[in-house]
Amino acid sequence: MAWKIWLGVAITLTTIYFVVEKSATSKLVLYNGLGLMSIVLLLVGVKINKPDTLKPWLWFAGGLTSFLTADVIYYVIELRAGEAGPPFPNVADAFYLGMYPLMIVGLIKLGSDPNDTDDVPDQDAFEPIE
After folding, report:
1. Looking at the 3D structure of the chain, how many domains does it have?
2. Residue 42 lies in a domain
């Protein structure tokens, strides 16, 4: 039942995002509010469902957090830059790029044996399918 409430909140925020005037402030609050909600709901889902393998979900949460951090930094820089716009590259780019390895590790760990205590992925994960 709670998922219906969160779905309603997400739909409402998404609708507001597309209806209000596009500005750095609206993007900072609405878009990143949805990003924060996704991190919170992922962690709540992990707590409720208690998956056999916790590590992949924590890596995914880390990736989402890195992306959210990048967005917040970018929009704050955009607010301060005014008409000139944010510089490129800027510090937010490191967090945007940091999201990818975190998600990839999460995907690798999701496909590995939960009883495997080794932190190195199996060689099979890198072999082509024949």
Report:
1. 1
2. yes
> For residues 122 and 116, is the Cβ–Cβ distance under 8 A?
yes
Taking Cα atoms as reference points, which of 117, 121, 110 lies closest to residue 53?
A: 110
Q: Are the CB atoms for 71 and 111 separated by under 8 Å?
A: no
pLDDT digit of tens for each residue in the chain (130 aa)?
788 988 898 899 888 888 988 877 787 888 888 899 899 999 999 999 998 889 999 999 999 999 999 999 998 898 888 888 888 899 999 999 999 999 999 999 988 766 656 555 555 555 665 5
Provide Rg for the chain, Cα atoms. Answer: 18
Reported pTM: 0.77
**Would you say residue 121 lies in a domain?**
no
For residue 126, being part of any structural domain is answered with: no
Q: Is residue 130 part of a domain?
A: no
